[in-house]
Structures are given as C-alpha cells and as structure tokens.
Amino acid sequence: MDQATKRELLDKDRQRVWHPFTQMKDYARQDHLLIEKAEGIFLYDADGNRYYDTVSSWWVNVHGHGHPRIKQAIIRQLEETDHIMFSGFTHRPGIELADKLLAIAPPGLGKTFYSDNGSTAVEVALKMSFQYWRHVGRPSKTKFAYLANSYHGDTLGAVSVGGVDLFHATFRPLLFDGYRLPSPLVGEWSGGRPTPEAAETSVAKALEAVKQLFETSAGEIAGLIVEPMIQAAGGMLMHPAAYIAGLRELCSRYDVHLIADEVAVGFGRTGTMFACEHAHVTPDLLCLSKGLTAGMMPLAATLCTDAIYEAFYDDYETQKTFFHGHSFTGNPLACAVALESLRIFEEEGVLDNVRAASDALRGHLPGLETFRHVANMRHLGLVAAFDLYADAASQTPYPPSERRGYQVYLEALKEGLILRPLGDTIYYWLPHCTTVAQLEDIVSRTSSVLERLGYR
Ligand code: PMP
C-alpha cells in the first residue's frame, strides 16, 4: 500500500473508529497496525512487515490464518444460503454441527444452543441455569459463584460474574450480586513454580472455601462458573486439574450447576480438545466460542445436559420458553466453517501437532526463565506466560505507571512479534499450526526483546 493511502486510512481510523480495550491517548501517540494480509501464523502490515501472531488474534485462531479448506467451506455454504434466522427455521450446518459438538464434548451433554460470541455463550448459560431452578420449583437459587480474577466477557451478566476489578469495578452498580471465591494458586508462587505439595495445599484450600460457601448458601446458588485450567484474561493463571475435579464433585453434592467457560481454552488450546478433559469432568453447561470456528467467523454455543433442557419442555401456557436469541444465532456460514474446522482436526492430526508444539515450547521456556526479572513461568498446551517483576525473588512488582508489559509489546513489534501483555504478564497463546521451528524463532525473538529492555 502506498504511504499516502496508509496515512489517510490510519487518520480516518483515529477520527472515526473506537477500538476495544484501547487507551485513547496511547492510540493518539501510536498508530494501530494496519493489517493487509494474514497467512498461517503471520500477519502482514501495510508496509509488508511480517509479525508472528503469537496471541492467535485474541485467542481465536486455530489452523492459521487463511486456511484454504476454511475459505472453501465459506464459499460452498454461500452458494446454498447466506444467513437464515434460527427460530422457526433450521439448516443442515446448524444441525450437523450441534450433533458433532455433542459427540466430541465431554460425555453427558445433550443439547446445543447457539449464539454469536463468547459473552453471549456465558449469558445463555447463566440465564438457562437461573431459569432451570425456577422451573424445577427451587426459585431461591438465583445467585452465581465465580472466581477472583475470572473473566467471562463484557456484557453485563458476564461482567457480574467477572473478577478482574480493572475491567469490572466501574460497572459494579449495574451488576447483580454473586459470591466471589478465591482462585487457587494465587499467592503460591514465590519467584518460582509452586512445588506439587504447595499446589495441592492451595487447591485443597480453594476447594474448602467452595465447600464452606455451599454449606451455608447452596440453597440460593444456581451455578458456579469457572474457566477450566486457565484463567486467561485475569492473568493466565493456571490451576491443577484436581481443582476442576473437586469443583465437579462439590457442585454435584450440593446441587449447583457447574458452568465451564471454555470460550478461550476449548478446541485444543490446552492440549486436549476441551480443557475439562484434563480432569475427566462434564459440566452441566459448557460455553464455547473463539476456536469453535477456528477463529474465522463469529459463533458461539452453549451446551447443556438433557436434564436442563427437559425442565424447559412444556406447553406454551406454562411460560417455560427460553426467551433468548440473537439475530445471527446459528449463522449457517459460521456453522459450516466450524464443521470444516472439526474435520481438519480429525483429518490433519491437529492435536498431534499441538502436543509436539507444546513439548517444544516447554523445552524453550527455561531459557526465558534465566532472565532475572522473569518469574512465575507457567505452561499448558499452546499457552505459556510469565510475569515481569522489579525483584522476582520477593515478587516486588514494577510501579504500574512504568507500564512494563506495554513497553515489551512496543519493542516486540520491532522484532516482528505480537506479544500482547496483560499488565506485566507476557504470554503466548499460539495457534495450533505453529511449527517447532517457528516456536524456536518466537522464543528467540522474545529473548532479544527482553535482553534489549534490560531484563537480564
Ligand atoms: N469467556 C472467556 C474465558 C474469554 O476469554 C472471553 C474473551 N476473551 C469471553 C468469555 C468473551 O468472549 P467474547 O469476547 O467473544 O465476547
């Protein structure tokens, strides 16, 4: 693209567009990257510069950008239908996808309810759970339990069960009350990995808090919502599978729905198709989006048990309808893409590649841990994260005003890397197509960035 066109577009962008999660004054000082082309793990800007998309375009991309089979799937579907409403009408891709999802999801889920983004997948789960308890004659079960540092989306229901004060505190007066539980392992790192004993104690402590809450209040709790294995936006906090298994056991014992928000971690990102598989757990409600369409189209699904569905199954007069739906619910193009993505998973050995890339990633992380200001290295599947500290041993943070994570982001761009930080937490959230050679290059570039910024 010529420089004049590029300048004109970027100026218009500044004048006319309001981007999400963007500090206005940063934007005034620093152009957004104007992306012209995306291919595999790479994005290319208007000047032809190439960047590793190490955050999979906000954690959605799976098979790499521009996968030819996905493109073909969109074209094929467009030749049949474009968007069709999904109430009173149905279509083959919507039916086949629901069937496929229920076949590969943890066993015991019976119905698929579509929406179009992660936040709405969560809204649907919360509303279904809430309404279910009314239908079964337990209307006092109206509240939700959620974890500190949890993130479930930006719509008001999802924010109500969000535990990241930076994002959520402003809206508190608008939100419904719930019970905030401690997240396991937070505070258990001390300049290194928690020992297995420390992790076990921390999980036991966190589960004890859940148990105590349920002892006193399960009668008013509809569901407990959790991001299984990785609390992502809250700082890439990872917990042992035993925690999820423990939650399942407590939710079953005290009659509380377990709502698994796998919007971010679903579809192979953690090394298994669904993160709940690490704990051999089936939730009552499972929220999916992002990787559902391999990150190519907006689509979401909330899967629920037959028991939940059956509580809504009645005649119109009983008013048990689930009054929830979006214009683009179950978009056929998106469903066709999701189906093709699931075929690619099966036919192209995608999970094998995830495991190979994950092993290679694990092998490279100790190199990054040699930096004096790097602490709390954690890793699962295609996700790895570490925190920058002024003093790693005592976990003394840098003053927030120094915006260390943001500085890393800016420097990494010069290195052809997109390292989008969460505060001073730097992370990778890699696409499944990442090769072992690309991984080595990504880690080596990250090292150069940290070196140049004086973290050695
Ligand atoms: N749940 C989780 C765990 C997420 O990470 C996100 C988005 N990052 C959401 C829900 C919300 O998804 P969306 O941005 O598509 O609304």
UniProtKB/TrEMBL annotation:
Family annotation (Pfam families): Aminotran_3
Residues binding substrate, per UniProt: W58, Y151, K290, G325, R420
GO MF: adenosylmethionine-8-amino-7-oxononanoate transaminase activity
Annotated pyridoxal 5'-phosphate binding sites: G118, S119, D261, H326, S327
EC number: 2.6.1.62
Cofactor requirements of the protein: pyridoxal 5'-phosphate
Catalysis: reaction(s): (8S)-8-amino-7-oxononanoate + S-adenosyl-L-methionine = S-adenosyl-4-methylsulfanyl-2-oxobutanoate + (7R,8S)-7,8-diammoniononanoate
Highest taxon, organism lineage: Bacteria
InterPro entries in UniProt: Aminotrans_3 (IPR005814), Aminotrans_3_PPA_site (IPR049704), BioA (IPR005815), PyrdxlP-dep_Trfase (IPR015424), PyrdxlP-dep_Trfase_major (IPR015421), PyrdxlP-dep_Trfase_small (IPR015422)
Principal location listed in the UniProt entry: cytoplasm
Protein's pathway: Cofactor biosynthesis; biotin biosynthesis; 7,8-diaminononanoate from 8-amino-7-oxononanoate (SAM route): step 1/1
Localization, UniProt: Cytoplasm
Gene3D superfamilies from the UniProt entry: Aspartate Aminotransferase, domain 1, Type I PLP-dependent aspartate aminotransferase-like (Major domain)
Residues with site note (Participates in the substrate recognition with KAPA and in a stacking interaction with the adenine ring of SAM): F21
Coiled coil: none
UniProt keyword terms in alphabetical order: Aminotransferase, Biotin biosynthesis, Cytoplasm, Pyridoxal phosphate, S-adenosyl-L-methionine, Transferase
N6-(pyridoxal phosphate)lysine carried by residues: K290
Quaternary assembly: Homodimer.
Function (record text): Catalyzes the transfer of the alpha-amino group from S-adenosyl-L-methionine (SAM) to 7-keto-8-aminopelargonic acid (KAPA) to form 7,8-diaminopelargonic acid (DAPA). It is the only aminotransferase known to utilize SAM as an amino donor.
Entry's family note: Belongs to the class-III pyridoxal-phosphate-dependent aminotransferase family. BioA subfamily.
Protein name: Adenosylmethionine-8-amino-7-oxononanoate aminotransferase
Source organism (scientific name): Paenibacillus hodogayensis
Classification lineage: Bacteria, Bacillati, Bacillota, Bacilli, Bacillales
Name of the gene encoding the protein in the UniProt record: bioA
